[in-house]
Specification:
transcription coactivator activity, 3 domains, about 260 residues, Arc Repressor Mutant, subunit A, Myb_dom, two-stranded antiparallel sheet, about 45% helix, mainly alpha, 10 helices
Length: about 260
């Protein structure tokens, strides 16, 4: 989502006016959220895969989920495929796949694919894509003083080498749900551990969003802005910092003004 950065799930909203394309989730759309060049009065379209492809009872979204489930579970393992689909029974999954993807392919012919090309190791000139040097977001030249100041920050990914709660994954790395002999208590304990891990991931994501939205990576920019403020405004901004995490940067600036 362009507004809150959450992973989009259909249906979602696509702005018809903003270029490059701006996609937002239905929650941000419902509250009229705005960011950057996007305004809530822009024309829009709803992106959804709810239309049928082969059969009226199967939407395009369900076709994609069926392909993903078969890729994960394998052909013939219809119980697991149905469990991953959640909306179709074993018989429905088996019958639909055999009818539309096997029998239909035999009667209508398989699509013509391009002949495979020999793999070739790319040269340095073809795979090395240098990023454009900029101050905001900070992308300093390699081996510069600025890059040393931002050690641990990966400008091409806009991410950090060391995350908040960096070892959260260590607590669940040995958990497995494949053992059918586990007691119900042990299974509940495993599920609780995973839920705690997901909570820690949300806390990590929340802090990264604060850093990104307020541009806190670019310390140099913030230091230059602070130097222009008089003492009274600097003290006011410091006292209002606890409220920054509760609102967008634009709303926080309006509150201070």
């Amino acid at each position: 989502c362009f507004i809150c950065s959450v992973a989009l799930k259909e249906p979602f909203i696509r702005c018809s006016r903003c270029r490059p394309v701006v996609d937002i989730c239905v929650h941000c759309f419902a509250r009229g959220a705005e960011r950057g060049r996007h305004r809530n009065d822009h024309s829009y379209e709803i992106i959804s895969n709810s239309f049928p492809v082969f059969e009226a009872a199967w939407s395009a979204e369900e076709e994609l989920r069926l392909m993903d489930a078969l890729s994960d579970c394998g052909y013939g393992n219809w119980a697991e495929v149905s469990k991953q689909m959640q909306t179709k029974t074993e018989e429905e999954c088996r019958g639909h796949y055999n009818q539309c993807y096997i029998k239909r392919a035999l009667t209508h012919g398989l699509p013509v694919l391009e002949p495979p090309k020999d793999a070739r190791t790319p040269t340095v000139a073809t795979w090395s894509v240098p990023f454009k040097v900029s101050e905001d977001p900070p992308r300093p030249p390699m081996d510069s003083v600025r890059s040393i100041e931002l050690a641990g920050y990966m400008p091409c990914r806009g991410d950090f080498e060391v995350e908040y709660d960096n070892y959260a994954e260590f607590d669940i790395k040995d958990i497995s749900f494949e053992n059918t002999n586990d007691s119900s208590l042990l299974t509940e304990l495993k599920i609780a551990a995973v839920e705690i891990f997901l909570t820690r991931l949300r806390e990590r994501w929340y802090r990264k969003q604060i850093v990104r939205r307020y541009g806190l990576v670019n310390i140099k920019k913030w230091q230059m802005l602070e130097k222009r403020l008089d003492r009274a405004e600097r003290e006011l901004r410091e006292s209002m910092l606890p409220f920054a995490r509760l609102q967008s940067p634009e709303d926080h600036e309006k509150l201070i003004q």
